[in-house]
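TICKET: design request
STATUS: open
ATTACHED STRUCTURE:
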């Protein structure tokens, strides 16, 4: 799910929710499908005015098409997967 998130100034000038009410915005990580609160997102990527939130930097890198850094769990896991038969 893609969401358009207001910038920091828009959020800070919004209505005062008080201390008893807490506002939560749930989003879905576009890579793994995890549902998370925007405030708990490990990473965020903006494209064309849309904000995408991720449960981990690994998911953000996969979304951006970046390779996993050498020695990370993602890089090691990908290397351990069997390749196509020749």
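STATUS: resolved
RESOLUTION: sequence designed for all positions
ATTACHED SEQUENCE:
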């Amino acid at each position: 799910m893609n969401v358009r998130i207001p910038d920091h100034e828009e959020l800070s000038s919004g209505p005062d929710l008080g201390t008893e009410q807490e506002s939560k915005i749930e989003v879905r990580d576009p890579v793994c499908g995890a549902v998370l609160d925007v405030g708990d997102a490990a990473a965020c990527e903006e494209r064309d005015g849309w904000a995408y939130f991720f449960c981990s930097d690994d998911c953000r890198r996969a979304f951006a098409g970046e390779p996993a850094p050498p020695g990370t769990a993602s890089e090691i896991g990908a290397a351990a997967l069997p390749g196509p038969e020749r």
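CLOSING REMARK: Residues 8-80 form one domain. The chain has a mean pLDDT of 74.
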